[in-house]
Amino acid sequence: IQRFLLSSLALVLQIVSTLNLSQAALKPYMDDVRSFLDQADELDGNMLFFEKGLYTTSLVAKGISDLINAYGGTDELPEAPIVIKRDRLIADGGALHYGQPKLKLKLVSLWGDAVYGPDTVTLKAGGLFAVQQLTKVLTLVGPMERGAFTAENGTSFQLSLSELDGKDMNKLPVPGHYVLELSAQWKDANDSKQLLGVKDVQLPLRVLTEAEVIDPVLIVMDVVSDRQVLDIKLNPGQRYTAPTAHGAVDLDLGHQMSLTLRLVDKHDRKVPLTAHQMFMQLTHLKTQQAITFLFTEIAALGVANAKAYQFRLEPEHSAADFDYLGGVYKMELIAGDTLFIKPIIWHMLCIHPPLIQADVNLHFTGEPGSDTARRLAEMNDVSRQRTPTVAAMKRSLGPSSLIGTGPTKAKPEIEHMFRAPERRAPSPIAWVFTIACAVPLLGLLVAWTVLGVNVWNFRFRLSNILFHAGLIAIFALYFIYWCYLDMFTTLGYLTVLGIPTFLTGNCVLRAQIAARRAASITSAESKKK
């Protein structure tokens, strides 16, 4: 009931706003707006909604915005709660790519039915603030005022966020999350429409860039003798091939492998980057079983305020994670972040067992588990292996769309049956029923044959011809219905044929009655004579 009450009152506000009433007449309805706002719930401290649903919320928002425009003001209503905004700013994706420092905006009605361009609205930019993701602290970047937006076309605004450094070069802010303060106002100060929610707006922005891997170093240590077995400086983006028969790095029991690398901005290597997701994917080349490990974030050596990423693997401690399945593994680095234009996918090498994006040859002691043994025997279903250990948390939860899970068995076909057809009667019963329906017609034909048909008394009038033609057409329609048509289509045709047949039949009967009366009068007069 409350939802219907809110919807009804919202419709009343919309209707009243179209009646061109005075402010005095609209004053009581403005008081009702306060009761609307009191019934609303807050979301994230800056948005109102009604728990009755999106339809009720949008309907109330439309009614309030129309009433404010008709009234010509907010009448001391607090603007902050009216986050059911009359107008809002829409950014193209809210992201800026490196080399494209121009921000493009449109001022669009909340309902999408009006676009306010540079010829009617002035849009000004305040300060640009960097957002610390963990603490949400804002730090000013550049000047406090960035001036007014320029007109890109009749409906769009644009503003360049690039700055001029000492070398007179366009320079974007470093990749990260930002908010830009915006304000809008009418160019015509006498405009009666209200712009709500466009004063000191903080527009979220992201400055994107391309990430690049630098300083990737792979080290294999012999833990028992505490000596370094292998020290390789990998080339980012290229696969390393070891000088072995299978081209993979051998990793035996007692060895420890570690990989350390850093991420930087591809366009400015002095700018360090961090990744929200940093994985090492190891995939067995034969069974395509995959296990995913997380990189550990450490402080970068020799670089201030920079982070490095490290991955460690010891076959002796990780044998259960691999289900004791030895062999050559493909090692792939996968890194992604909301600030990266595209993720990093680097096949480093192969290990035996596998290493990062190279191939590794891993050696374990112990028998492979039942799941691995089944895969090796069948080599058909290569879905991901399961691990019974705590290290299962290091696995990716679903199939990898990047590496694949190999061939799978075909699923059984699904057959949909909405309603089983009713059983038909046996053929003998159907024929008996058909003959029973045809007996009256056969009886009529036999009666006509025995008694005779007086066709010489037929009068060729228009009504007689139409009546008999309609009657024959109806009988023909019954036959067609029996063989081809459905009931509703037949009823439609019967209506078209029945109306003229009924009218002409009435005329035929009246003509016959008139003829009989005339004949009786004639016979009576002849008897009197």
Automatic annotation (TrEMBL):
The keyword Endoplasmic reticulum applies. Residues 1-24 form the signal peptide. Keywords: Endoplasmic reticulum, Membrane, Signal, Transferase, Transmembrane, Transmembrane helix. GO terms for molecular function: transferase activity. Pathway: Protein modification; protein glycosylation. The keyword Membrane applies. Residues 418-516 form the Ribophorin II C-terminal domain. It holds the Pfam family Ribophorin_II. It comes from the Eukaryota. It is a multi-pass membrane protein. It is found in: Endoplasmic reticulum membrane. Residues 245-349 form the Ribophorin II third domain. Component of the oligosaccharyltransferase (OST) complex. OST exists in two different complex forms which contain common core subunits RPN1, RPN2, OST48, OST4, DAD1 and TMEM258, either STT3A or STT3B as catalytic subunits, and form-specific accessory subunits. STT3A complex assembly occurs through the formation of 3 subcomplexes. Subcomplex 1 contains RPN1 and TMEM258, subcomplex 2 contains the STT3A-specific subunits STT3A, DC2/OSTC, and KCP2 as well as the core subunit OST4, and subcomplex 3 contains RPN2, DAD1, and OST48. Subunit of the oligosaccharyl transferase (OST) complex that catalyzes the initial transfer of a defined glycan (Glc(3)Man(9)GlcNAc(2) in eukaryotes) from the lipid carrier dolichol-pyrophosphate to an asparagine residue within an Asn-X-Ser/Thr consensus motif in nascent polypeptide chains, the first step in protein N-glycosylation. N-glycosylation occurs cotranslationally and the complex associates with the Sec61 complex at the channel-forming translocon complex that mediates protein translocation across the endoplasmic reticulum (ER). All subunits are required for a maximal enzyme activity. Belongs to the SWP1 family. This is Dolichyl-diphosphooligosaccharide--protein glycosyltransferase subunit 2. It comes from Paragonimus westermani.
